[in-house]
Amino acid sequence: MGDVTARIAEIVGERNLLTGDAVPEDYAHDESLTVGAAKPAYVAKPSTADEVSALLALAAEHEIPVTARGSGSGLSGAARPREDGLVVSFERMNAVLAIDTANQVAVVQPGVTLSELDEATREAGLAYTVYPGELSASVGGNVGTNAGGMRAVKYGVARHNIVGLQAVLPGGEVITTGGKTSKISSGYDLTQLIIGSEGTLALVTEVTVKLYPRLPHAATLLAPFGDLDQVMRAVPEIIASGLTPSILEYIDNLTMAAISYNEKLELGVPEEVRNATQAYLVVGLENRDGDRLDGDVQRAGELLGDLGASDVYVLDGGSARKLIEAREKAFWTAKAAGADDVIDVVVPRSEMPGFLAKARELAAAAEAGAIGCGHAGDGNVHLAIFCKDTEKRHKLLHGIFAVAVAVGGAISGEHGIGQAKKDHFLALEDPAKVALLRRIKQAFDPKGILNPDVLFD
Amino acid sequence: MGDVTARIAEIVGERNLLTGDAVPEDYAHDESLTVGAAKPAYVAKPSTADEVSALLALAAEHEIPVTARGSGSGLSGAARPREDGLVVSFERMNAVLAIDTANQVAVVQPGVTLSELDEATREAGLAYTVYPGELSASVGGNVGTNAGGMRAVKYGVARHNIVGLQAVLPGGEVITTGGKTSKISSGYDLTQLIIGSEGTLALVTEVTVKLYPRLPHAATLLAPFGDLDQVMRAVPEIIASGLTPSILEYIDNLTMAAISYNEKLELGVPEEVRNATQAYLVVGLENRDGDRLDGDVQRAGELLGDLGASDVYVLDGGSARKLIEAREKAFWTAKAAGADDVIDVVVPRSEMPGFLAKARELAAAAEAGAIGCGHAGDGNVHLAIFCKDTEKRHKLLHGIFAVAVAVGGAISGEHGIGQAKKDHFLALEDPAKVALLRRIKQAFDPKGILNPDVLFD
């Protein structure tokens, strides 16, 4: 171990290596509510792909488990290291290397945070449109979990916005995949394979992301509904309308009450309307032209009325921003309220009413709470689970995940499986597919050094 | 062999098996101009995934090379079988299983052609937006090559429009990947890995594709430019404008002359303008609102003028349709004109001027012709190569591909590597990456029975 320490220090420099008691608690976990902390033996902070390569070659030689870490804001325990392991922290690889306006891409190092990238692209009038609701999240983390967020309904998730990677294989080879083009048909798509692999296949050292023009005109509509089912039935109609909402969220009444209270939101919804509301739809619209936006807002308002909204509020800029921010903080609100887990099942959007009804039934039967909000346009349902008993909760989650899978959905839409949900994943997934995933893992990482506790046993 | 014949007949029924002299010439090749024909030993026409599974289990047992075939309209020789091999033809698996309007997806069997799917989605006001220019192409073929086409500039390529698969692994296991949702973060994305794998990883037996609303208002602008460079420099500006063109093609003057002559196009461009034109831009716009479309057409016209177009013609519906159809037939025009190969290099769109200049230099030095057109918005350059000498042509192609790779592009944007371009691919690609691709191939297909001559040696 002394030898390994010395060699890591050689690679990254002594000041960029932490070991033993000097490792801060932060590196022992991410934001998962259920995956406990584990302090790693080493934290190395490389500054180049070559350093990452040398670290991986060393780890392979000594079969040291390696966990990549961006900002540590993940929710599935994919950044929880092994106690005998090495955390490769990308905090020093946080440069925006290029904002390329002709190709509408940015090239960044993985440690760049979403707020840094937002700042860097603003002047060019462009934006990276993946907003998972946590601006301190890193682009590298977005790659690992295939991050989504509210704007995915219009712009897609990380998978649709990342066009090229530089990555280091567990043997130390540095490869590049994809590029500044959005179409390639020349061999298997390694970019797409690495996206969403939660640090189990390769360590990403450079990311090329798509940028979109920032549209100058935006509006937010809030529509209370007396019935959650009606909300869910409205969603496909809004998608089909061609209005192309940039945000299409549902928030149930308990969640709205909690985030309103926490964030001191004043949205102008009278108390008697609030009391008669089971859930809200939030519809974001944007346009490069103000008049067109006005036309769309009017049409969306009429449509929401036709679909059963008890009223429609066009929020002013300040209220809209506050509501979106409060919605983004729903995880923290749930955590503060004592939620025991937070999940993000995805189902076909037509299946949301049935799925939610069954999930609530299961929760009621377990005497547990399951309240939430979600990216309704994508069928991505976020539920805060209140159920102290670990065994009961595990059974409840298993039931909810099984319902989702049975209707053609999946356990996670954007948080990932990580360590938090892998037993459910392995139990519910087709064994032939799991065996294939393991062989793919083996193709990248024959010694199994990358995040050995994530996805698989 | 008698035994194998009998067992295939048992699986698919005697009338759905062809062997020996009964195998029509068609099954011996696709539309590649350079990959010669090879009559397979067997052609089986299964009607279910279970039959495909039984065929693959049998093929694995006897190590018989297997080539999947959709419509045979591919351009890279990925559907050219081995002489001792089995062609699995999906012509009988051509059912549209569901048009799901709530989730805006269609579920189809792989043998469905694009024109059949277009017909099936029309009534619901929806469309599958991958138009590779050959309506007889099959959806299964789209998956294999990651097909693109003119509308990719707005809607993306096959990869962005295919959300779920049912596929049979070479061992015979039937798996499903993805689903009716466009976001999932639950294990490696096998859908994306199989897309573009050219029949080397699995045989696809069911495809779930995204559908988009058909927009009722469309317009096509034709802009002649005196200088090809100017055309290429105009492209990023049009993309940045936010006009979101649904088509953004360039056509060089020789190609325009050829397709105009072949298809008897009359576009209203006066002879003196034609004579002073090096290349044309074709800009397609569409909108759900007629007034908005008119506004966009005006804005696009002004922008094209600012960018150096010598004039802008708004084509009437009939002329526009004819031009697009003629452009789609550019491959056949090139073939009829005696082209010796047709390639579809992709480069970052900002690199198109430099790439085209170098490609033309290389062609001139080889005393060869290289004329073309392309999906300019995607940096996807289609060149018809006129060069009879095989060795000289090989060297020229190698030079052109090397330039593309050097500027961050790839050998093929949408046709695939197949058998036609694999020696260039293997020579120009990073050996560490090729080794990884081979290990992934091995993870799916340990006996190497699926398309053994495609992508790899």
UniProtKB/TrEMBL annotation, chains A, B:
Q: Does the keyword Oxidoreductase apply?
A: yes
Q: Which keywords label this protein?
A: FAD, Flavoprotein, Oxidoreductase
Coiled coil (residue ranges): none
Pfam entry (one): FAD_binding_4
Name by which UniProt lists this protein: Glycolate oxidase
Query: Where in the numbering of this chain does the FAD-binding PCMH-type domain appear?
Result: 35-214
The answer to whether keyword Zinc-finger applies is no
Provide the E.C. number(s) assigned to this enzyme.
1.1.3.15
> What GO molecular-function term can you cite, just one?
FAD binding
State the species of origin: Amycolatopsis endophytica
- Membrane-spanning regions, if any? none
Q: Which cofactor does it need?
A: FAD
